Amino acid sequence: MDVRVICATQKNLTELVQRGEFREDLYYRLNVLTITIPPLRERPQDIMPLTELFVARFADEQGVARPKLANDLSSFLCKYGWPGNVRQLKNAIYRALTQTDGYELRPQDIILPDFEVEIALGDEVMEGSLDDISKRFERSVLTRLYRTYPSTRKLAKRLGVSHTAIANKLREYGLSNRKLTDDSEE
């Protein structure tokens, strides 16, 4: 009998063997060929091909027309960190397609957890004073949430602040739904 076993793990098996938490003999039996696939956040070039695959697959399964992908969808999806990797992307696309009523898949159709921010905290984000960094972060949060909560009252309720405070912040950062729509069309 010829048997091949394919295993996948997110654990560091070498470390587990050293700590005695994984059998060393089993490790060497299984560790014939190691393929390391980086997380999706490290492979932004794969996000849109995967998105297109999931859209096509879901549309075919449901017997519906494939929606067009909005021009700004790629930049929106690539800015997200995808802690759940490909499975999270697939689920987000499926959820969006079941709930959209249009012929175009747009960033505002994709629901992502609020604890993630559309910017990655790289070195360029950390430049400047604490006030500068805080303002960039605040602007990013407002930009992202204002697409989902398009009225100042809804956004204020979502963030737990007064309508006046939100209106002042949007004015301070030069944000409005019209501007966000214009920016996404470029």
From TrEMBL:
PANTHER family: HTH-TYPE TRANSCRIPTIONAL REGULATORY PROTEIN TYRR, TRANSCRIPTIONAL REGULATORY PROTEIN. This is Transcriptional regulatory protein tyrR. It holds the Pfam family HTH_50. SUPFAM superfamilies: Homeodomain-like (SSF46689), P-loop containing nucleoside triphosphate hydrolases (SSF52540). Keywords: Activator, ATP-binding, Cytoplasm, DNA-binding, Nucleotide-binding, Repressor, Transcription, Transcription regulation. It is found in: Cytoplasm. PROSITE patterns: SIGMA54_INTERACT_3, SIGMA54_INTERACT_4. The gene is tyrR_1. It comes from Serratia fonticola.
